[in-house]
Design goal:
single chain, seven-stranded mixed sheet, four-stranded parallel sheet, 22 helices, 30 strands, 33% helix
């Protein structure tokens, strides 16, 4: 959108030449002028462009001190580039779907939209008072049908490409919020939103195949090195977790072949048992009749334990011997097969070869169950069977047949060569990353644009029928979580004709994770009012990728990884001309008070509105940007917005005196 024409621009607020500095007078004179005049709208005059985006806020109440810091940083960058003559895009929007609005609606016997849009108006007024240099003509809300129409459209494009699919699987379940959680939304075994201990359930859910882009997500970090904080890149590398190694086939006696992944096939001679994830189907398949009841009881207890806790190094080891043995493909030795909780069903193949001398968790399990420990790496350290401490260095191979005397690299290569010759193993690469679980059993989110027909199966809603909008007649207790989506009870909404055969069918009743909405919103900023297409290609080329993105480091894995995946997938679909959404990333620090995070429960909160009333917008913003480097925390107890106000008054007097000469 171009700037307002000169004839429509209001007169510039005038200030008497002899006026003393008064932040109240200054703010009153300029309030509303910038928006009316289109001061911060892009000029669209062909100048070199820059785009600054702040991670958009969630509309839960009024702005707080954290907003004050984050948006002050983006504002400094935008104004700096404007002063340098660039044509600058600095948009704003709201991440307005999500659980807080739904929970508030249940308490207030209302529709989530009422709470959501009331909060947006409150925050918008505060943003306008705060005077940030944003283009309000591009404001967007992810809960607007005009926006989530395109979220649904993009879902359908990914579905057609095979990147969106459904499957039955064990999922993280929050008993409080009554919805599934992605692995990234479980923190220390608890729901990141409400803090409730997470359990496991098996459900049929929608996923995005983010694993298809694991290599691209890793390799393209070369574009970001030096422009993103290194700790964010390290967190993403660790989360994706690319591992080079081998798949090794173990023949179960009178049973199937069980394939395991290992990064150290050179240690196969040290494998003395195998472990299968207790909650994996394979465990039940292998369990003998005499241990089946014991295994089922163990699996039932396991539902109460999170994946994080299961892998804790200090967790006591437990398990069930399945009464079966497998054959070591290098040695021919019979290895007992156990089921345990420290192996995860959805990591690797859900089974491991246990080399207790050189893996601490395997060693702890072996000692707990009285299983043998065999050292096959000479690292110069004490024998793990005696010390109880696994040796994990590279070492030289011992007690390993034809691998004896080889170092790690040579032994891995030779072990793989032997297995490939015998047809019992092969070199491979695996990843810690799992596909993105996007289904949510809640109301206030983007409906999944799929119809389920008993004859046709999954059928996409025709594009000319998008958006599939949420019903407006559900509110209050009707939205209360019941283990399934509240939409399932909206019969008139759920029951539809199949778009393909015309027979009776049902809409999908799950809604999308709100991280889907935020994975592509910056792309929509380029042409937010285009009703005919998701993106204007020319606008995308002009304004994106984002030159400077600003937001908290807490989004390092969730939002930022998902946004990178979406951009790459849309690039492959020919919709986006670049592969990374954000050229540069700034993580601002926290605003503390007395060394602690501000919190109502701690009674140490500082109200932004009160600070603006007392010191003025410019003094508060100046305090924020000069308190510390932007990446560091700011302790509000240690700063002095009053002093910043005095500095501004002095600068005012100097400018006034200079103007008189």
């Amino acid at each position: 959108m171009s700037q307002t024409t000169d004839s429509a621009v209001p007169a510039t607020p005038s200030i008497p030449a002899d006026a003393e500095y008064s932040f109240r007078d200054v703010e009153a004179r300029w309030a509303g002028y910038w928006e009316q005049a289109g001061t911060f709208a892009p000029r669209e005059d062909g100048s070199e462009t820059r785009t600054v985006v702040d991670m958009f806020p969630y509309p839960s109440g009024d702005l707080h001190m954290g907003h004050a810091e984050a948006f002050a940083m983006g504002d400094v960058v935008a104004r700096h580039w404007m002063q340098r003559g660039f044509d600058v895009l600095h948009p704003i929007g709201w991440d307005s779907f999500g659980l807080p609005a739904e929970n508030a609606a249940i308490k207030r016997d209302a529709h989530p939209a009422e709470w959501t849009y009331a909060n947006i108006e409150t925050q918008k007024r505060s943003f306008q008072r705060y005077g940030i240099a944003v283009d309000w003509s591009r404001e967007l809300h992810t809960s607007d049908p005009e926006y989530y129409r395109w979220t649904q459209w993009l879902f359908q494009q990914l579905y057609r490409k095979g990147l969106a699919y459904r499957k039955d699987s064990p999922v993280n379940w929050c008993p409080q919020d009554q919805t599934v959680l992605a692995n990234e939304q479980v923190v220390d075994g608890r729901c990141e939103r409400c803090g409730t201990e997470v359990t496991k359930r098996t459900l049929n859910q929608w996923y995005f195949r983010i694993t298809e882009y694991a290599d691209a997500l890793l390799d393209d970090m070369d574009q970001l090195t030096g422009h993103w904080p290194e700790r964010v890149l390290a967190m993403q590398r660790n989360w994706i977790g690319r591992s080079e190694g081998a798949h090794v086939d173990f023949q179960v006696e009178d049973g199937p072949v069980v394939t395991v992944f290992t990064t150290r096939p050179d240690t196969l001679y040290g494998a003395t048992f195998m472990v299968v994830a207790a909650d994996a189907p394979l465990a039940a398949e292998l369990a003998g009749d005499d241990v089946r009841a014991e295994l089922e009881a163990y699996r039932e207890d396991l539902k109460k334990v999170s994946d994080i806790d299961r892998q804790a190094t200090d967790r006591p080891k437990s398990g069930v011997f399945l009464g079966r043995h497998a054959v070591n493909p290098l040695t021919g030795e019979r290895l007992p097969i156990w089921a345990s909780d420290y192996v995860l069903a959805d990591y690797g193949t859900g089974a491991i070869m246990a080399v207790p001398a050189h893996d601490q968790r395997d060693l702890d399990f072996a000692r707990a169950m009285g299983l043998p420990v065999r050292t096959v790496l000479d690292t110069g350290e004490e024998d793990p069977a005696v010390s109880g401490v696994a040796t994990t260095g590279e070492g030289i191979l011992v007690n390993s047949g034809e691998l004896d005397g080889l170092d790690k690299t040579a032994a891995i290569a030779r072990a793989i060569e032997i297995m490939e010759e015998r047809g019992t193993g092969r070199a491979t690469t695996t990843y810690r990353l799992r596909d993105w679980l996007l289904s949510r059993q809640r109301f206030w989110g983007t409906p999944i644009p799929v119809v389920h027909c008993p004859d046709c199966g999954e059928v996409l809603v025709p594009e000319d029928q998008l958006p599939v909008t949420l019903p407006t007649d559900l509110k209050g207790e009707q939205l209360a979580p019941k283990g399934r989506s509240p939409l399932a009870a909206a019969t008139s909404w759920v029951e539809v004709d199949c778009p393909q055969c015309g027979g009776p069918a049902r809409r999908d009743t799950d809604t999308m994770d709100t991280f889907v909405d935020s994975s592509w919103y910056v792309l929509r900023y380029a042409s937010p009012n285009d009703d005919a297409r998701v993106f204007d290609p020319e606008a995308l080329r002009r304004w994106l990728p984002v030159d400077q993105y600003v937001g908290g480091v807490e989004h390092a894995i969730l939002h930022l990884l998902y946004a990178r995946f979406f951009t790459k997938a849309l690039h492959d679909l020919g919709l986006v001309p670049f592969t990374e959404p954000f050229r540069s990333l700034l993580n601002q620090g926290q605003v503390l008070n007395g060394g602690k995070a501000m919190s109502k429960s701690l009674g140490n909160g500082v109200d932004l509105g009160d600070q603006l009333d007392e010191f003025g917008v410019d003094a508060v913003r100046l305090t924020m940007v000069f308190a510390s480097p932007p990446e560091d925390d700011v302790d509000w107890a240690d700063v002095a917005p009053g002093a910043a106000g005095k500095f501004l008054a002095r600068a005012w007097r100097l400018a006034r005196d200079a103007a008189r000469r």
